[in-house]
Amino acid sequence: MDERQISIGVFIDGGYYAKIDENLKDLAGLQVDLNDLFNYIRTQVSTKYELDFADCQITESHYFRGRYRVNDANNKHILYVERKFEDTLIENDVVFHYKHLREVEKKGQMVVIEKGVDVWFALETFELSLIRKFDFVVLITGDADHEMLIKKLKTLKIRVLLLTWNLGEQSSTSPFLKEEAGWHIELADECKKNKTLMNKLCKSVR
Hints:
By secondary structure, the chain is α/β, with parallel strands linked by helices.
């Protein structure tokens, strides 16, 4: 790479990220610290490619999630939790993208689902990668549907890092996605190798 600032784009699958946070809370009373996670990403890029840490900058980050309408969120007593998490996104310059959850009938019962968020995630990631010309794109997701997104990013000659944290079935990663990714970091495995890493990436739930 030439001597210039290295541009990193981070794209977060909000549903997947929420499952990681839920599992961390249940297992150890912890939650991911976004600032520390972003610094970890910069460290991994700079170390792997022998670059100066200061030159490896996350120039853009985006978060995608289905979201309850206000009355539903209020009835479920999650408005405060949602707002608090949004504060964290804002503090770390993460752009959030929300689409209302939909209620559909399945087997005679009404269930709430995300509809179209994965497609939006993929389209926005690819479009912004074209426009911003990122050197690296980091995908925080475990969804097999994003296999083709990685293929398309490769055609742009962008290095892709798949960052996952498998803490149970709900946050498991598709083997097809891992196979397609040119570079994959499984944080559960990394935390087993480095006993202090989890404490560096997480903070206590207050």
